[in-house]
């Protein structure tokens, strides 16, 4: 190593140790949330503007008023485009709540060999999320007649690995639709990182609250960057609040 490089390294090491020992930067601690917001929201803004011109099945960016139910238009376009209505898909939903979106997918995808797997605490959110308190969205396990539905109760952190150990091989070679609707960063990053070894080209990953900069978007960014994962955006609704991707 050259002398000047070694000198620079010494300066960097000394500065870091000095800041750690003196706690000098803690004077800025009251601004942590602001810096966090600025950094992450700017990341989201850059991502949206970089990706908004991709070829989408549908993309309504920019619209002045959101309509949450427009996510169903995305679902419909995806089912049609990928011919899922009669295919033996594996639909995995992370965050089922009362089962509204889960029922929608079961009603649209009619193949008798399709499998529908729903993961939830069924006792509500494990953490506060925005205006929602811990425990909100507690509805119990939905009661469905359709034998293709399977529910896994508990934190994903406790249920997903057992599921993958038992059923993971059966997911290979089938188109998987992974619907991430747990809202939280923790739940989303956990689900994505565990599902990673099972992801195959042509699988679809949908984020219900993609543009929430400190939750699903942050999980998306960390996941794609840490796992060198290439996800192609295919559909976006409500200014990227809802976004779907294909594994390529
Ligand atoms: C917005 S709701 C799901 C709505 C549903 N997909 C729909 O569209 O009808 C979010 C759900 O995620 C669940 N959830 C969040 N984090 C979780 C975790 N770590 N483990 C299990 N369930 C979780 C909550 O219990 C809640 O029911």
UniProtKB/TrEMBL annotation:
Family annotation (Pfam families): TylF
Classification via InterPro entries: SAM-dependent_MTases_sf, TylF_MeTrfase
Origin superkingdom: Bacteria
Database matches in PANTHER family: MACROCIN O-METHYLTRANSFERASE
Name the record gives this protein: Macrocin O-methyltransferase
Organism: Flavipsychrobacter stenotrophus
């Amino acid at each position: 190593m050259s002398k000047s490089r070694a000198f620079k390294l010494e300066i960097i090491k000394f500065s870091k140790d000095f800041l750690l020992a003196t706690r000098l930067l803690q004077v800025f601690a009251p601004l942590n949330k602001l810096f966090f917001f600025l950094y992450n929201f700017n990341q989201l803004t850059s991502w949206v503007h970089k990706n908004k011109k991709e070829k989408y099945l549908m993309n309504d960016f920019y619209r002045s008023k959101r309509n949450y139910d427009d996510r169903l238009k995305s679902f419909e376009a995806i089912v049609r485009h990928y011919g899922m209505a009669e295919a033996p898909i594996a639909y995995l939903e992370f965050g089922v709540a009362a089962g509204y979106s889960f029922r929608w997918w079961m009603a649209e995808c009619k193949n008798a060999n399709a499998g529908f797997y729903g993961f939830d605490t069924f006792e509500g959110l494990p953490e506060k999320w925005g205006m929602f308190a811990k425990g909100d969205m507690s509805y119990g396990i939905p009661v469905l007649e359709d034998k293709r539905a399977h529910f896994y109760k508990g934190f994903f952190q406790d249920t997903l690995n057992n599921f993958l150990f038992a059923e993971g091989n059966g997911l290979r070679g089938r188109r998987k639709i992974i619907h991430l609707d747990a809202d939280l960063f923790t739940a989303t990053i956990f689900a994505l990182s565990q599902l990673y070894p099972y992801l195959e080209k042509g699988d679809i990953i949908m984020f219900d609250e993609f543009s929430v900069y400190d939750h699903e978007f942050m999980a998306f960014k960390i996941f794609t960057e840490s796992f060198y994962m290439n996800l192609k955006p295919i559909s976006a609704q409500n200014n990227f609040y809802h976004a779907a991707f294909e594994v390529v």
